[in-house]
Design brief:
This protein has 340 residues and is of the alpha+beta class. Helices cover 35% and strands 26% of the residues. The strands form three sheets. It has an eight-stranded antiparallel barrel with strand order 2-4-3-10-7-9-8-5. Strands 1-6 form a two-stranded antiparallel ribbon. A two-stranded antiparallel sheet has the order 11-12.
Length: 340
């Protein structure tokens, strides 16, 4: 049986990657079930998972999709003075409804994703708080019209499992379309408590959530399933990308004819380097976040993969000089850290 020291000696071995794929597919999968699929014990899976968290390699979080609540998602491009960019990015990263905060390599643009929970919060963020910040020189706001789904979520380790293991694991729940469910979703105070706990730890136990909400464990499980089914709640993983060997990240903005947008968006979603791709409003109508091993890899991706799509008329590549926050976790240069 592998030892705790063996877990610490390698960045990610095959079993680590298989466990990560299981968590990407089902973030709350019982360790006993995942161990049975992978042919190891429940204790081995639990130990490996604890090691991955302790080393800052992964963070499992429950995320809120605000679209079923009647809200939209925005991508913000903020131009600032170079000597004030870090302070602005750090301030944005501390906001709970702002994610994917990065300082781009041109040194004076901060990009982030904004998911306000209410119309009042949206107005506060987009019309008052951010535009009036002393560091902001120019603000460009792009609405996300459609997020294109992946056949397999990044980092795409499915080839490390057998066909039988993949069938037993099952597919990842489908991504909700931007229109959301037909019936609006109302959140209670207890729902908010549960969502806050899951944001800190997506694998928090039903008993832990029950103690905080006053519900029974069975009611917690039932309500969690309802929110997942409605599209309000989904589970995601953040990764310490540099420690996994991916040192180059970039935001790529593309333009094409409106009639080609769906075709190109679906094509880009099949590229292994792409972690996120969405159709947006604004002068560029498609945006992709890519993860590459190095700058040479990024160059090959732009020239070979994007270059093979003749429908793309224009490409702007902006490398991320530094990431300050992923979907739910604040970052330093070495690991992911849970937002307090």
């Amino acid at each position: 049986m592998d030892s705790e020291n063996a877990d610490e000696s390698a960045v990610l071995d095959t079993l680590d990657k298989q466990i990560i794929h299981g968590l990407v597919t089902d973030a709350r999968i019982p360790f006993a079930r995942l161990g049975g699929i992978l042919g190891v014990s429940e204790q081995t899976v639990a130990r490996r998972y604890r090691s991955l968290r302790r080393r800052g390699m992964i963070h499992v979080a429950g995320q809120m999709n605000t679209v079923p609540l009647g809200r939209t998602r925005w991508i913000l491009r903020i131009r600032t003075a170079p000597n004030r960019a870090v302070a602005l990015a750090e301030a944005l990263a501390r906001l709970p409804d702002v994610s994917w905060v990065s300082l781009l390599a041109n040194g004076f643009e901060v990009t982030c994703v904004c998911r306000p929970r209410s119309a009042e919060r949206q107005e506060e963020l987009l019309l008052r708080m951010i535009p009036r910040a002393g560091q902001v020189l120019e603000l460009t706001v792009h609405e996300v019209m459609r997020q294109f789904p992946f056949a397999e979520e990044w980092p795409r380790y499915s080839d490390l499992l057998t066909a039988a293991q993949l069938r037993e694991l099952g597919p990842r729940p489908p991504m909700w379309e931007p229109r959301g469910p037909e019936k609006s979703v109302e959140l209670s105070r207890a729902d908010e408590v549960m969502l806050a706990i899951l944001g800190r730890d997506g694998r928090a136990s039903y008993a832990q959530i029950a103690a905080a909400t006053g519900w029974s464990a069975s009611r917690v499980a039932r309500r969690m399933s309802e929110l997942v089914e409605s599209g309000v709640l989904y589970f995601d993983l953040d990764f310490a990308l540099e420690r996994m060997g991916y040192v180059t990240r970039a935001w790529i903005w593309m333009r094409m004819r409106p009639g080609d947008l769906e075709t190109v968006g679906r094509a880009v979603a099949t590229h292994p380097e792409v972690a996120y791709v969405a159709a947006t409003t604004g002068t560029a109508n498609l945006m992709a976040a890519v993860v590459c091993n190095d700058t040479a890899h990024l160059y090959r991706y732009v020239t070979d993969s994007l270059g093979a799509l003749p429908e793309i008329n224009d490409v702007q590549v902006l490398s991320a000089l530094r990431m300050f926050k992923q979907s739910q976790t604040l970052l330093d240069d070495r690991k992911v850290g849970v937002v307090p």
